[in-house]
Amino acid sequence: MRSSTPVERRIDERARRFLAAAPANGAKAKLTEFTVFGLKQGWACIFGAALLAVLMAARLWYPDGAGLARNDFLTVAAVVIQILMVAFKLETLRELRVIVLFHLVGTVMELFKTDMGSWSYGAEGVLRIGAVPLFSGFMYAAVGSYMVRVYRLFDLRFAAYPRRWVTAVLAAAIYANFFTHHYIWDLRRVLLAAVVLIFGACVMHFRVFRREFRMPLVVSFLLVALFIWLAENIATWSGAWLYPSQVDGWHPVGLEKLVAWFLLMIISVVLVAWVYKPRPPEPEKAGRREVRPAGHR
User: Fold this and answer.
1) Does the global pTM surpass 0.70?
2) Which of 61, 114, 142, 289 sits at a 20 to 30 Å CA gap from 204?
3) Are the CB atoms for 106 and 140 separated by under 8 Å?
4) Smallest Cα–Cα separation from 174: which of 257, 261, 92, 90?
């Protein structure tokens, strides 16, 4: 794994020894690839999964009369999770830079959106900026953590990746539209078309165990956006925040939010590209899908 942490290298070595005897072809080989894919995805989601677990636990069991307000508890818990991620070398300091940037970008948008009434948080607690509890930024940081981790866990490479300055301009326009659509035209349809135009030809190559797979990058944006939408439903059910239509009773978040998360994927990709420059597929791998495990000749 590229730029993996010491903990991940030890896990990877043990996993490869365990799977060394796994068949290279047939149904069992496909099952092995699928299992490893799921385990790697789960490992990439560890920050977000831990944060969601805390949100759900606080919803179910946090006492109403506790001396520490629930929102403040969530903030303290999120800080502890982040510290543990670095202390136990589950994230590198290099990755922490982009995760902090996700946090800042998200918090700025939270301040504006809550002021505009797009969604709201409970009023309890002192660890907040205006109406925004500080744990909210960690939810964006969780997305950043997933993005940087999945990038190296699957050794992502990209064929026909657009110029980074073009993607940066697009990401800036998307971010700006989240603010400006409250005052002028909402350009999300134009931006969606621009995403398809700019990223439409890009194909993502990723390695699971022995095999290398391919997927259109736009499809991966949609799949990750769907995953975040599901997590958002859990977070709103837990009362982390509420949309105006949920104040009188919780119901699933509307599918229109998928568009917002899809567009946010572009911002995420640009921020991750700041840490890991997108690389093309290796020439010797371009014409084949079988990849030998590391350490084998």
Assistant:
1) yes
2) 142
3) yes
4) 261
In the structure encoding, which two tokens stand for residue 3, read together?
């730029």
Strand segments, DSSP code E, in 50-166 are: 128-129, 132-133, 157-159
Name residue, tokens 């014409």: 287
Task: Report how far residue 26's alpha carbon sits from residue 17's, in angstroms, rounded to the nearest whole number.
Answer: 20
Q: What is the pLDDT along the chain (297 residues), one digit of tens a residue?
A: 456 677 777 777 777 776 777 667 778 778 888 888 999 999 999 999 999 999 999 999 999 888 899 999 999 999 999 999 988 888 888 788 888 999 999 999 999 999 999 999 988 899 999 999 999 999 999 998 999 889 888 989 999 999 999 999 999 999 999 999 999 999 999 999 999 999 999 999 998 887 889 999 999 999 999 999 999 999 999 989 999 999 889 999 988 899 999 999 999 999 888 878 899 998 754 444 444 444 443
CA distance 227 to 257: 12
Please tell me the distance from the alpha carbon of residue 230 to that of residue 210, in angstroms, as a whole number. Answer: 30
Question: Residues with Cβ < 8 Å from 29, sequence gap 6 or more?
Answer: 22, 23, 210
Residues whose CB falls within 8 Å of the CB of residue 42, separated by 6 or more in sequence, listed in order? 49
Using CA atoms of 273, 196, 180, 122 in order, give the dihedral in degrees to the nearest 10: -70
Whole-angstrom distance, CA of residue 134 vs CA of residue 129: 7
